[in-house]
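Narrative of accomplishments. A recurring question from our advisory board has been how the design workflow behaves on a single, concrete structure rather than in aggregate. To address it, we present the structure tokens for one chain from the evaluation set, followed by the sequence designed for it. No filtering or post-editing was applied between the two.
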């Protein structure tokens, strides 16, 4: 039998620290300025991480970006740099 330990309180630990905190931090900032585009990530053209994050944001794949459609994301290559922009649009008119 596996031994378990019962505790009175959970450790004081934020599971959203490190790289996982990125989405929560950015999403929170965007929700404070609905409708305004923000440059959230840059990299070399063809950087898969940027294209993946664009998809995750737009589809609401992970918790900070839910529900689907609450955020928009667009990427552009400008002056040889791939740039990812995002904005919070939940509850805004569709023509914003």
């Amino acid at each position: 039998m596996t031994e378990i330990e019962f505790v009175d309180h959970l450790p004081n630990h934020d599971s959203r620290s490190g790289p996982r905190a990125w989405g929560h931090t950015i999403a929170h900032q965007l929700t404070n300025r609905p409708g305004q585009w923000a440059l959230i990530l840059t990299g070399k053209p063809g950087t898969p991480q940027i294209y993946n994050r664009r998809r995750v944001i737009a589809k609401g794949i992970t918790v900070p970006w839910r529900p689907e459609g609450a955020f928009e994301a667009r990427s552009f290559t400008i002056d040889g740099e791939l740039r990812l922009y995002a904005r919070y649009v939940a509850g805004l008119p569709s023509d914003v």
